[in-house]
Amino acid sequence: MSVYMLFVCFASSGVNLATSRIVSEQMAYGKEDGMKLAVKKCINYSLFMGVTSAILLFLFSPFISTYWLHSKVSAMPLRIIAFSLPFLSISSSINGYFSAIRNVKKTAIAQVFEQIIRIYFVTFFINYFLPSGIEYACISLVLGGTISEICSFLLILFSYNRDIRKKKCVMNRGDNYTKQILRITLPIAFTSYVRSGLSTLKQILIPIRLEKSGISCEKALSQYGMINGMAMPLIMFPCAFISSFSMLLIPEFSYLNAKKSYDKINFAINKILKFCFIFSFLIMGVFWCFSEELSNSIYSEANVSIFIKVLSPLIVLMYIDNVVDGILKGLDKQVAVMGINILDLFTSITFIYFLLPIQGIKGYIVVLFISEILNGLVSLFLLIKETNLKIDFANWLIKPCFAIFVLNLIFRNYSPSSILELVVQILIFCICYFASIVLFRGLVKSDLKF
Fold first, then answer.
1. What is the per-residue pLDDT across 1-19, written as a single tens digit (0 to 9) for each?
2. Residue 302 in 3-state DSSP?
3. pTM score, two decimals?
4. Dihedral-angle region of residue 14 (phi above 0 means left; psi in -120 to 50 means alpha; beta otherwise)
5. 187 lies in a domain?
6. Has residue 97 been placed in a domain?
């Protein structure tokens, strides 16, 4: 998957952001007649990059399998997954269009449809192929993923064709959007390639350096998988809401930035960050307080709970960073965002190389904290610099943190005996949290007015 994500980066090359930004700006300038040509140019760019990436991955799969993955998996899964890249790239461009016109319902339906198809085919293929060995299990996963990408592409393309026909757009050949597309995509593409290359190196390096600490390859992969494959997906699951929200911020802030509505930009940022801090502290509190119960209920594995608890304080930084990145991209600071990510990766790789052989898995947890703190704080400082944002420490940080501390003292003595009881306790925890925030006047009636 780390190799696949590198080629996904090549295939998309910032085209989602380019489509979203250009269409949003055209709408802000009142030039809706140029949208159709702009999106067509973006789709053509996506097709070229997607096909090129697929060919490269297909041709170099044996080399990657041998020298990057140490022959632990054959070239076949990489060659299968290469076929999904053109479809993924074009879908990315069309999704940018729907984000720009504020019609994300189409994108959401396509994503849900994709996941349903993926689950069905992955389950079907694994049941059929798994007795043949782990190699065929990997093939089952990537084959199901490729089929789901193609199905999602067909649905989103159908939605796009229906939507664009309704618009009375004039194809003005005099407008050349190629320069605009390249102005946005080329800096993003370059920094994305560097970032993805470093990210792939990081993912490959972690198990290798863990082995140097004296543990076996199997144990290194097991511990790494427990964090990245079990604990992290769980604590990042509520971030699905934040991620969707942050993608919607890009066209909104592009629109306001194009109209130079700086007062509205600052007003929106303050509202958004306040709610995001309150939400992220709540999620952090739930995972901190109920880590053992969630681990046993979801994974039937008590060992994961310690990682969930230890990593839960990072939730606030990770969630806020997601939103801040979306705002900065909308304000035309996407290159700076990529630069921060590259700095983060360079720092992480350095610590991984030197710290993991000494500290083992504890060293990897330290690296995660260093990475998220660096990335989150630098992004926030950049936003403060660009917008003169004033952080309300009392209402954004101190009151939510105090509420979580008190609730943790109350709820930690109650151990639910069933999943239903756990769900009820979490709901009560959430209600008490919001009641505490309102009681402390961290949220007031005026906050609900936009």
1. 778 888 888 887 777 777 7
2. coil
3. 0.72
4. left
5. no
6. yes
